[in-house]
Amino acid sequence: MENNNTKLYVAYGSNLNTTQMKFRCPTARIVGSDTLENYQLLFRGSNGSAVATIESMDDYHVPVLIWEITPTDEAALDLYEGFPTFYRKEPIMIRLGDERHEAFVYIMNIQDEQGNARNIARPSNYYFNVILEGYQQAMSDNLTKFDANILLKARNFSECSYRSGMSDEVVIQILTIKSSGETNMLDTENVYNIAVRDGLYELADYLLAHKDKYARFIMTGKTNAEEQ
């Protein structure tokens, strides 16, 4: 597998696309795939040009490709990923066959150098399609972990979060209760009780202050009546 001069790099976004990686890192090679358990794929940044990242989230998973890269490849990736200000590098354990190995992954810093938040937002169609092509390439290689619904859900979540005007935490907590199927989401009293019970306090506080906006969001995906 890796030797003293190479590292294992975990890709989950546009670097799943083998055409792009061949251009960026011509000496890199795919050595396998894996699934990161308890991580969620998200898009953060400016609306219409947000890019992919992953964040810890129970009961989610993200399919990844494992690349073996040289120091030259890593230097190129550092440049493309805006390391260390835009993305940081974190070690992560992955499985190749029956063995576990240490690799590294780029994860977005959710604040810029001035302390401004990089919010959940929509990616461009071009960028999204580059990642989708990577998923399709992986599926054509019989890597069944690459379910395109994971990517579509990440984009839909970014659309939901941007249009709602809610904080990321409130949207995540709404979707957590919705995915459980425990209640009708328009039953605000029951949603509130579940939120309190499960420690989803941002949503509970939002319901107390903005019940009308919450109901509008559930029905339309927006919180403001004037939005088109």
Please describe what this structure looks like.
With 228 residues, the protein is α+β, with helices and mostly antiparallel strands. The chain has two domains: 149 residues, Hypothetical upf0131 protein ytfp (Roll), CATH 3.10.490.10; 64 residues, no CATH class. The protein is built from eight helices and five strands. Strands 2-3-1-5-4 form a five-stranded mixed beta sheet. Helix 6 packs antiparallel against helix 7. It is elongated. The mean pLDDT is 90.
Helices and strands, with pairings:
Elements: E1 7-11, H1 18-24, E2 29-44, E3 51-69, H2 71-81, E4 87-96, E5 99-108, H3 125-140, H4 148-164, H5 168-180, H6 188-197, H7 201-209, H8 211-220
Helix pairs in contact: 6-7
Count of domain modules: 2
Q: In terms of structural class, how would the helical and strand content be classed?
A: alpha+beta
Sheet with the most strands: spatial strand order: 2-3-1-5-4
Radius of gyration, CA atoms, in whole angstroms: 19 Å
Strand percentage: 25-35%
Mean pLDDT value: 90
Kindly state the number of beta strands: 5
Question: What is the structure about, briefly put?
Answer:
The chain is of the alpha+beta class and 228 residues long. The protein has 8 helices and 5 strands, in the order E-H-E-E-H-E-E-H-H-H-H-H-H.
